Amino acid sequence: MNISRKVLTLDEYTIQQVRQIPNATGELSALLRDIGLAAKRVNVEVNKAGLVDILGDAGSVNVQGEDVKKLDVFANDQFTGVLRHGISCAGIASEELDDYVAFEDSVSRNSKYVVCFDPLDGSGNIDVNVSIGTIFGVYRRVSSKGSIAAKEDFLQKGTQQVAAGYVVYGSSTMLVYATRRGANGFTLDQSIGEFTLSHPDIKCPPKGKIYSVNHGNFFQYDKKVQRYIDICQKKDKSNGGPYTQRYIGSMVADVHRNLIKGGIFMYPGTVDKPKGKLRLLYECNPFAFIVSVAGGKATNGIQRILDIQPTELHQRSPLFIGSKDMMEELEGELDKKE
Ligand code: AHG
Ligand code: MN
Ligand code: MN
What we know:
Elements: H1 10-20, H2 27-48, H3 52-55, H4 71-85, E1 89-94, E2 101-102, H5 106-109, E3 113-121, E4 132-140, H6 151-154, E5 161-169, E6 173-179, E7 182-189, E8 194-199, E9 210-212, H7 223-233, E10 244-245, H8 251-261, E11 263-267, H9 280-293, E12 297-299, E13 319-322, H10 324-335
Parallel strand pairs: 1-3, 9-10, 9-11
Antiparallel strand pairs: 1-2, 3-4, 4-5, 5-6, 6-7, 7-8, 11-13, 12-13
The chain binds 2,5-anhydro-1,6-di-O-phosphono-D-glucitol and manganese (II) ion (2 copies).
């Protein structure tokens, strides 16, 4: 077996970054290492998901006599666990939990960061072997070190993220994370059990050919959004249209593909749900940060996602995200008078 030592693991890469930044404490790289570990554990379980009938269904008891948990609960426990026991995280907010959790031990109380995450995104797709993922955003706490984390630590604007990332459990498992210095992708090398740098310095192509939206909701969307979808479908030499429609129904997989290939992903508000479905803290903000670092854009149709001041942990927001030129084409339509 040939293992190229030119390839950096996630740990090696983050340590290399720490060495380049004067006064860096290494707390962020420790936090990313913890997240990488939880992702590997979740990956193992996601790969076994097709065996539930043999190993036991959620809610039943498995062959070892343990309760079988729903995968999103399992993923939530893994990410919460590594962050609780690590040295960098003062608390977490998760899509799976009603309220945030402040870690009360003295190491956590003195830690710098809090993390907001969606432990398993696209979990409705587990049963049918379609890619799913994890999404996370990291913030420097605003409450004082030494105290336990407070709600205000989690209700920060997306611009305040220090890092954000996601994991896709797909045909290969990949972790992508961004800091202000850039976005990088690491593919899980199953042979050594390590994430290795496979996509250095990811840039979102300014223009793509893919648009991703739930067409079933078309007549529920605002007229201006409908008009933009019409444009996506028109033959037009000036924008290279018609675009290709791709919608997996796992945001992580949809936005990941568009980030790499170029494209636009939309989850607009509908008549019934004017704020759409996606959550600002756990889904919109981390992706808005990553895509912006990579040169793309993200809005709620009115303002930049990253500039929205959150008021509640689980608040939802419409989301339009992707390649810069396509986003500007959309914004042009949304700015027009009816
Ligand atoms: P989750 O599994 O965390 O609840 O999120 C699923 C989300 C997102 O991944 C996806 O883009 C969207 O739901 C799909 O929703 P629709 O089926 O309404 O299009
Ligand atoms: Mn989700
Ligand atoms: Mn989820």
